[in-house]
Amino acid sequence: MVSSTIDHMVATVVFLGALLLFVGLFNQTIQTAILYQRHRYIATKCSDLLDNMLLNPGYPLDWGTSNCTPTGFGLQDPEFTQYKLSPFSLMRLRSSTGELVYYPKTDSYYSNITMGYGFLLVPLTEVINYSSAARLLGINGTYGFQLTITPIITVSIKELQPKNPLILSVVVTGMGFPLANAAVSYCFLTVREGSGGGPYPSYMMEYGTDFADETGSVLLNFPSVTTDVSYVLIVYAHMSGLVGVGYYEHATYENSYVVPFIDSLEERRVLIAHSWDVHGGASPAEIAYNATFVLLTEDFTLREMPMENSTGKTGKINYGQDPEHAYKEITIPTYNPGILIISYRKSAQETGVVLMPWGISAMAFPVTFGDNPFGKEWVATDIRQVTVNNIAYQAKLALWSLEGYGVIG
Amino acid sequence: MMRTIEIFLVIIIITAAFIISSLFAVLPSPRQVSPLNLRRLALTTLQTLDVDYDLSEIVFKPEDDPAWGKLQIALSACLPPNIVYNLTAYEVSTEGTELYHPIKSISNAESLGVASDAGSYLVASSNVTFDVIPEKIGEHGGGGTLYILNCSDANGWWITGYTGQSLAEDLYKLLSPYFKITIMVQNTTQLAQILDGTSIQGETLQDAVVINTFGETVPIPSGYYATQGYSGGSYAKYCYILGQKVRLYNWTWASIVGWPFYYVSNTGLFSSSQNGWGIYGMVMVSSYGLRAFLQGLDNQHYGYSTSSTGNPGVVYLSQEAIYYCNYYGIYPSPYQTSTRALPDSILTTYNLPQSSVTYIFNRVGNWIPGAVYRHIAAGDNKITGSLFALGLTRTPDIRLTGLGLLCAFKPRLYRSEYTASGTSRLVVLQFGQVGGA
């Protein structure tokens, strides 16, 4: 009787122990499966959300070229179908990589995508921030995301010889391989003394075409450069539908330069500010500037678009002025994407040039928008090839869940 | 003891069940759980390569054409290094049982692995023609008639290098697709006919557009209009009557260049008169003509007084006009010289409300170099006549006239229609991934 009872007790204990162990083991398998299922769902959501962003223009359709706050989020160019994005809607996304720039003369902060002397500074009041976009997309509080729009073609330019002749090396590469034998068209702008010794700098533009070799590189010679001058080279490389942009500036004077701030997208107004008022620096001086605007034509050449005199294309700016006299205003003549080129001078020998893309694609600026995916538990990504005003870009969306993975074993 | 043994047997059974179920419950690899959407990536890659129709051009080239090599370079350059691909172009056949016949294939790997996906893209040859069908003005409402003054018995002024007739022909080619009916008014007799309210070919007279191709001159019919239109030694009264007719029929009167209504012309009526510059068949009305027209348009009393225009110099197309340049594919120079811009004071004096003006050129101070002015009588809300005045210097560019009218009426362009068969090829791009889990 006693042995039978002991037998029952041992059997019960062993059975219960085994049962608990197996429940744990099965639960772990089920838990992993559920997690995988959720990850799968995030991947599907990521693909859908990316298409949702890229295949609708948002509302109102022209929100990229106006100052309004959209009530629907989308980046497609409203004049096209397919994966063609609006260069201006992208410009209104708050960059999550560049540090904000504060300009005390307007008492405003600006979203910053600046690369070298290529400036793109959009007032914070006009950009769409991450939380607004998430709310418009209906994922606020449920998913986090980061959207990255990166040019597919990289055009790198280096100065090999500064004069007699100026030699610049251009290398064209894609995401995987060099773009061998790519056609290269360029615009070379040199800053000159003002006509008749006038105070404002003038400029001379030279256009040309060439072809890259098997390694995607080409040397461009400019025999007209015999002295140290300020210049900018803008290069468009293209092959079989892929188009990329690169640029390179050289300035003989960099203590003071102009900084262009977008003031109003709707009115196409740009503020021309003095660098000392923005970044400080040593030995500032008054500088005179001359602005011009160039467009990319269908045959991949750049064409100058005249700016009305009344738009303030020439002027002088000084540092430390009161806000009313600290900056000048110019008006971009069109909503077609292009490049605002501003040459400046302190004296005949001390000149420089800065650029500002009008539309993100004109200088192939990348855009990073959204939260940082670093450290998130599971991040799904998806990519699409897109074009922005015919410039090839890759759009990549990283998506993760904000609701946690509440699978308790 | 027996119970314990039974329990161990149960444990062995459950263990076996767990092992067997674990063998079958194989969880997918992370790449399978969270895959790149290769199908979409393939489609968007093909679209990118065809952004300037390069892909459409290449796939119709011979198999040994170097363009295929360039396509492969571009394809390799635009993809991440871990993506392998195979691009195959197929001839689309409408005969026989084989619908798709492969003609060329390019790849960067022998195999695409076990998991691959593909996107397809149908391209058309450049031999294919496309039709653009414009919406006809008046199709969904009143009007829809375009009158182009082509009067053989009138001469023009400030249309240097052209004649009214040659401009009329060009305007016909440019604008007739956008109107329900286009009528060339061949002489001043026909002009009198429509001014009298009688149609020429049964067309709708109301809400029509009338383009005066004679520049600063306006043709004048003999008879009633020449007699009633002559008052106080001037034909300005005729311009006044024109203004009244424009209001009556709700016409849009287009003046293509210079100072509108500055001269009147009828080679029969004024055979011995010249305009002061040696052009016979023409009489100068001077600036009184424009004032009289606007008085007639606004139903004011006729008063013989001068009008003024300004000389703002270089002027620029408005944003709206630039937009419609792209929409309609009409590309005049975006900046022009204006020496006969109308003053903005006419907006209030003659009930041409600012809100209803379509600017073709940007305003310069108080001057309006080119715009469509719509008359809305005080206390009313409907349009009763319009004036389209391009106050540019000679020689006229009739593309600006066309652009201005299209900006004013905004007819839609319907999507292209595919009109060829047997000239398509299917491009299939298949992707696989290498490396990684």
Structure description:
The complex is a heterodimer of chains A (409) and B (437). With 409 residues, chain A is of the alpha+beta class. Chain A is built from five helices and 23 strands. In chain A, strands 1-22-23-5-21 form a five-stranded mixed beta sheet. In chain A, strand 19 (338-345) and strand 20 (351-358) form a beta hairpin. The model of chain A has no long low-confidence stretch (mean pLDDT 87). Chain B folds into two domains: 34-128 and 420-433, 2-Layer Sandwich (Ribosomal protein S3 C-terminal domain); 132-416. In chain B, a hairpin with a 6-residue loop joins strand 17 (370-376) and strand 18. The longest helix of chain B has 23 residues, at 2-24. Chain B has helices at 2-24, 30-33, 38-49, 54-58, 66-78, 164-175, 188-195, 224-228, 236-249, 288-297, 319-328, 345-349, 398-409, and strands at residues 83-92, 100-107, 116-124, 130-134, 145-149, 181-185, 209-212, 217-219, 252-255, 263-265, 282-284, 313-316, 335-338, 342-343, 358-359, 367-368, 370-376, 383-390, 413-418, 424-433. Chain B contains 13 helices and 20 strands. The two termini of chain B are 50 Å apart. Chain B is α/β, with parallel strands linked by helices. Chains A and B meet through helix 1 and strand 22 of A and helix 1, helix 3, helix 4, helix 5 and helix 11 of B.
